[in-house]
């Protein structure tokens, strides 16, 4: 069926509207605090929705339905760990961030261990976040190329440029408030899509339930670990304990050590509001992933054919939208997917720019007389945003035709660094004896095991962060016990 003028008009109206909305925040940007922390004056509910939007990208919306299409609802076990990880952050890491005026997560590492380790952890964040974000930006091209018929490189360029415009001008305030709008758009669009699929399946929900039940599509828990105890199948990604334990460690790392999320937590008015935003986002994200998974189950009931028919599972949902959805609704759903893409990209641009400026540029380059002025530093921050937009565009182009199921590839890339990072943060928060050299030793071992798991192991990615964190913490703590006690940091 394809898109018609109504659909294209809706998409164009969204792209223009969200860009203009983001530009409204330009006048509020006067200092680095305004640009990177929104002057710490954002209400908790807006931060909560922004956190949900920041961890939701195009690859989430198109790949999670494809995952349910191929399997079932067992991915929700991992999401349960996402909620538990937020509780751990609230009690262990969040109090540390609100002791003093911090701009990035890695300033906490310097305060506890020293400047060298801050450089290492911030550099690791920049490398892995950029790589993972490149895959996410690439996922945009799958949708836009199917919907608009443009080339994948052109599609990436369009979204990157429009997102850059309002992120460049409005800073974190523009990022958070556009996230709020975009969350309502893509969640609302997904709900409309679900009801439309139900209408198109002969027999409605009764038929969907019968077909999905026959193929065990509603299965949430995989208790194979309990059934075969004490033997654990570490190669299977979505078991009960891989989900809960692995998801807890993954989220504690991604939301407690990654500048992408920590920056939002630091923008809250106080620690209490920051904790409220983080915990409520866990409830919202559980609902959201359940929504995306049910879309995949419904699509299976509609098509009842192998995902290989579409080339890859990630193409099923966008193909359905373009070829089966009524005009108008199809345009709304494409706009919803683009909303998720732009919210995630804007978050990445601002967090990468903030870490580049605060953790590297302002530390290592002696400032000239002109650069000390707030407006000069603000100009440098905006230039850093442009630089990262160009870098992510290049990485997204490199990712074309080089990745598998994009949601899992994105999680795998991030997991390579998360284990070592979380181990170091926990050493800082939970121990007093461990010093910088001990933490560095542990971090090297953690990174080594993560690289081995990624390149040569059959262990599922859901266990990577747990293993990397445990090894980093154990080696760092053991090194501190083997060393004669020295002066306290």
How would you describe what is shown here?
With 489 residues, the chain is mainly alpha-helical. The chain has one domain: Sodium/glucose cotransporter (Up-down Bundle). The protein has 20 helices and no strands. It has helices at residues 5-23, 32-37, 44-54, 58-70, 76-92, 94-97, 106-112, 115-148, 152-200, 204-214, 224-227, 240-256, 259-266, 271-303, 316-324, 329-364, 374-399, 406-430, 436-456, 464-482. α15 packs across α16. The radius of gyration is 22 Å and the shape is globular. It starts with a helix and ends in a 7-residue tail after the last helix. The model has no long low-confidence stretch (mean pLDDT 87).
The CATH topology: Sodium/glucose cotransporter
SSE succession = HHHHHHHHHHHHHHHHHHHH
Strand content: under 5%
Number of helices: 20
**Gross CATH architecture:** Up-down Bundle
Give the beta-strand count.
0
Inertia-based shape: globular
Global Rg: 22 Å
Judged by helices, strands and strand pairing, the structural class is mainly alpha
Percentage of helical residues? over 70%
Give a quick precis of the structure.
The chain is mainly α.
């Amino acid at each position: 069926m394809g898109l018609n003028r109504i659909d294209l008009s809706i998409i164009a109206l969204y792209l223009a509207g969200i860009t203009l909305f983001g530009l409204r925040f330009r006048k509020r940007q006067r200092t680095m605090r305004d640009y990177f922390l929104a002057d710490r004056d954002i209400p908790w509910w807006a931060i909560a929705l922004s956190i949900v939007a920041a961890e939701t990208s195009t690859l989430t919306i198109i790949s999670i339905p494809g995952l349910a299409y191929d399997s079932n609802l067992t991915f929700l076990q991992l999401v349960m760990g996402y909620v538990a990880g937020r509780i751990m952050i609230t009690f262990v890491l969040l109090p540390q961030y609100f002791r003093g005026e911090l701009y990035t997560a890695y300033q906490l590492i310097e305060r506890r261990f020293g400047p060298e380790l801050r450089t290492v952890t911030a550099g690791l964040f920049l490398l892995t976040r950029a790589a993972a974000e490149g895959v996410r930006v690439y996922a945009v091209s799958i949708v836009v190329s199917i919907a608009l018929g443009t080339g994948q490189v052109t599609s990436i360029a369009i979204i990157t440029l429009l997102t850059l415009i309002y992120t460049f001008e409005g800073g974190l305030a523009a990022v958070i408030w556009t996230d709020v709008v975009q969350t309502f758009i893509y969640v609302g669009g997904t709900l409309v899509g679900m009801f439309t699929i139900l209408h198109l399946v002969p027999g409605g929900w009764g038929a969907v339930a019968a077909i999905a039940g026959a193929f065990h599509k509603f299965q949430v828990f995989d208790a194979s670990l309990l059934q075969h105890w004490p033997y654990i199948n570490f190669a299977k990604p979505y078991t009960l304990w891989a989900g809960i334990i692995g998801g807890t460690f993954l989220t504690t790392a991604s939301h407690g050590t990654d500048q992408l999320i920590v920056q939002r937590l630091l923008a809250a008015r106080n620690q209490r509001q920051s904790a409220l935003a983080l915990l409520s986002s866990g409830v919202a994200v559980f609902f959201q992933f359940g929504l995306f998974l049910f879309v995949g189950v419904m699509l299976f009931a509609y098509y009842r054919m192998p995902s290989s028919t579409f080339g890859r599972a990630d193409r099923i949902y966008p193909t359905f939208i373009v070829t089966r959805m009524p005009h108008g609704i199809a345009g709304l759903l494409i706009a919803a997917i683009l909303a998720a893409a732009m919210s995630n990209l804007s978050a990445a641009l601002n967090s990468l720019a903030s870490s580049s400026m605060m953790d590297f540029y302002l530390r290592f380059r002696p400032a000239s007389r002109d650069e000390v002025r707030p407006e000069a530093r603000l100009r440098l921050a905006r230039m850093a945003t442009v630089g990262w937009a160009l870098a992510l565009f290049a990485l997204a182009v490199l990712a074309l035709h080089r990745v598998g199921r994009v949601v899992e590839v994105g999680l795998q890339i991030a997991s390579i660094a998360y284990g070592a990072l979380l181990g170091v943060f926990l050493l800082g928060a939970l121990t007093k004896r461990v010093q910088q050299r001990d933490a560095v030793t542990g971090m090297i071992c953690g990174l080594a095991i993560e690289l081995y798991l990624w390149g040569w192991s059959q262990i599922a990615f859901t266990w990577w962060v747990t293993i990397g964190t445990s090894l980093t913490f154990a080696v760092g703590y053991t090194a501190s016990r083997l060393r004669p006690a020295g002066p306290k940091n």
